[in-house]
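Budget justification note: compute hours in this period were largely spent on complex prediction jobs such as the one shown. Inputs:
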Amino acid sequence: MGNCVVLKNVSFRRDGRLIFDDISLNIPKGKVTSILGPSGTGKTTLLGLITGQLKPDSGEVLVNNLSVPDLSRQALFELRKKMSLLFQSGALFTDMTVFENVAFALREHTQLPEHMIRDLVLLRLENVGLRGAGQLMPSQLSGGMARRVALARSIILDPDLIMYDEPFTGQDPVSKGILVKLIRALNKNLSLTSVLVSHDVEEALSISDHVYVLSHGQVIASGTPEALRENTGSELQQFLFGLPDGPVSFHFPAKPLSEEVLA
Amino acid sequence: MKPSKLMVHHYIINGVRRIGMNALDICATFGRAGWFLVQSLNWGKGFKAPLSRLVYQVYNLGVLSLPIILVSGLFVGMVLALQGYHILVDYGSQEAVGQMVALSILREFGPVVSALLFAGRAGSALTAEIGLMKATEQLSAMEIMGVDPFKRIMSPRLWGGIICLPLLNLMFCVLGIYGGALVAVDMLGIYEGSYWANMQGSVEFYGDIVKGVIKSVVFAVVVTWIAIFQGWNALPTSMGISRATTQTVVQASLAVLGLDFVLTAVMLGGF
Amino acid sequence: MISKRLEISVGVFVIAGILALVVLAFNASGLNFTDKDQRYILYARFENLSGLSERAKVSLSGVTIGRVVSIELDTEDYVAVVKMAIDKNVPLTTDTSASILTAGLLGEKYIGLSVGADEETLMNADEIEDTQSSIVLEELIGQFLFSRSE
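Corresponding output:
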């Protein structure tokens, strides 16, 4: 089994701020890999680098052995047909029905006859348990349903690689449970490579084969979920077990309170 | 405290630096806007993309703008006839009111007013629509799905605008001229034959009508371009979108009026 | 999916726009594509046009029967040559006279024709011999003042 995505010594700056400092990651084919880290560590930026929406300042980003930053616009769009990204917000097209949302990529990229499109879309909606919701508009869906529709939409072209950007944020426990089950099931049934970016530690650990933990632009830990739980790095422990204070300070850097308030 | 020589130096250098930075910013924005226009004009290879997208945009931008354009055209023509009559009657040339109404509408009011109304009615809607698509990550989602948002979203809107505004302008002109006739002939009692004959004697098909349409096409490109660029460039927040929408109307209106002067100067200069 | 009604409304919109162009072309600019078949050309020489322009009316007893097509200068005699297109249904006698007149005190200039008594009529590309230039207000005032001072 090779690697689907490889990042080699990648550095990335935004507005002069160093977001990634020489990081390297391997994402193996056919596995679920989680990338964990506190908010603001550039996890979404990482996905941007993989999809080619952002270009690294230095280092290599390889997807299916193609160097993403060097691809032409056309080749990049070709490559993107094989990957998909589930946005935090779902990013459903608000002026189309659920059915049309899921059918979108098929209509854009294939010349399939209408009845085949219909069958494929209904199958995918069935996969996420929303076959009955095809004629609803996105505004009529609950947050959890919208995310499942987005999931159905992102797997319609049978991608090799699917990336989830914070899939659990803002979901109630039931929806979270459904999503965990779905991600696992899809990975197995469609032999996908899944990349999960999250700060929901429990859910992420429960479905991952491999985990990377990012902080301050660097990989501070990696390994199987079990190995991570036993790792004793203090920053890692603070993050994994949700301690309010530790190496990562509760306070945003500021002048001492006494100086600012009492002066 | 007297500022030292060094501090004065510092202020001057900082001032120059700021001017330079602003100039660079402006150049960069124009460059990006130009690149954006070229990208958006590209309909895709061999015009294979379904025409239904364009049809929908013509509906959205053109058909839905019709009421405001037609009503405005009618009233502009009526007011022009009324004003023109009261000026011309002093010289005993009130018969020329048809010619005055037709020339001012075909040359100026038609293209300019329809473009301003279009910017307010359709341009602001375009900016808000694209800005919201961006804010809700719909544009990114499209890009990730391997669909070029320029071809899918921008291009039909830009071409829709380029098709719609000249047509709206023509309808505005017709309504304006007939509105003028309504006032001049039916209200002020000018002989109908001389209203039209005077008009036909002075209006030239190429020199007035075609040039008006050319103006309108230029305005269509500029207004739609500004509208979709502002949407695409908007900060993905509610504040950002509201600002972008305002910017669209302000910039498009200024651009139309400024360009109108330039185009008029060029056209009267013998082109 | 785009509904039928939307498509029809767009079709109507585009047709209405093109129709508007046609209406403007014929009603506002008096464009006439059959011009050449229904008209014939006459020439007339004037010493002074004083403001007569292309597309000016040519009228007979107050009825417009044609238009000025072009104006050129004859560099041998230094007179203006006016080319007119006249309605085919209006035959003009060879002794027709042409003069440049003004509509109202400050109105536009036009060419007024008056027909003579000849039997023969002017043919295409003929010239009207009897012409009278426009009255120039300044000259008239000058003459008046000159005659008073004597």
